[in-house]
Design goal:
This protein has about 130 residues and is mainly alpha-helical. It is elongated, with a radius of gyration of 15 Å.
Length: about 130
């Protein structure tokens, strides 16, 4: 039950991060029309918010070593970003590259990233050790 509560908070924080990420993704995609550039820049921007909120509220790990948490968290988010890029590029290859298809690819990548991100954060990045 405790992990379910964490998951609900994680999803709320994730939704806020998603709004930040999606907004910047669309801004940069409209400017550049380049999927990978847009998703990387948007992810980096939303990651700052996401780390602070998850560390302080979701996993309540602010009393633990940030020097351990940041590298672990970056590895988790690199894996989620990589899964988003690979799945997104596969979808764009099949559907073609335009704003609608880029957003479809974006949402599929987010759906894949949620369980990877939650489990990686819970079991490793913010683990209280």
């Amino acid at each position: 039950m405790k992990n379910f509560r964490k998951f609900v908070i994680f999803c709320f924080v994730g939704f806020c991060s998603f709004l930040i990420d999606w907004t910047f993704f669309n801004i940069f995609y409209k400017i550049s029309s380049w999927f990978i550039f847009s998703i990387v820049i948007a992810t980096v921007i939303s990651m700052i918010f996401n780390f602070i909120m998850n560390r302080n509220f979701t996993f309540k790990a602010r009393g633990y070593s940030i020097k351990k948490q940041i590298p672990r968290w970056l590895v988790v988010y690199f894996i989620t970003l990589l899964s988003r890029i690979i799945s997104g590029k596969c979808i764009i290859i099949v559907l073609g590259e335009n704003l609608l298809n880029a957003n479809i690819a974006y949402f599929v990548g987010i759906a894949l990233a949620i369980p990877i991100s939650f489990l990686g954060s819970l079991l490793w990045a913010f683990k209280k050790d």
